[in-house]
Predict the 3D structure of the following.
Amino acid sequence: MDIPEKYKQLWSDWDIRVLILLSLFVQIILIFLGRLRKTSTSIWIRMLIWSSYLLADWVADFVLGQLSNAMDDSSSSNAIIAFWAPFLILHLGGPDTITAYSMEDNELWARHLLGLIYELIVAFYVLFRSLPNTHLLAPTILIFLVAIIKYVERS
């Protein structure tokens, strides 16, 4: 079964926007339900929190990859694309209500630190590719600093 061309074009136009909204939605779930992971007896709430916790990192990683692929030298929207990169690093830092799903996750700080280095390389690549468009450079750098601090706190 082949996907019709109009759906391929629709996804090509909206993929980054939809994935950023998905990342934001997962963060909202973790913010509001994260503190219930230890007290809730409902299996559905615990499964939702656990799957959101696992999905949060994957979606942010994937969107950063999509952002790096979307950068082209001729586009005037590169500044907007680069503006989303620090928000995704901020999402990788996670909400304060759930920094780790279990105590074993806290022992994986070296993996999180390696992930931070990799994600920062990709995010700086996206920022570097957008440098001719400096309209949003100052707010992007400020959000980068906050995002790095947030991610280091998680690690």
About this structure: The helical segments are 5-33, 43-70, 78-93, 103-106, 109-129, 137-154. The mean pLDDT is 80. Residues 83 and 95 are 20 Å apart (CA to CA).
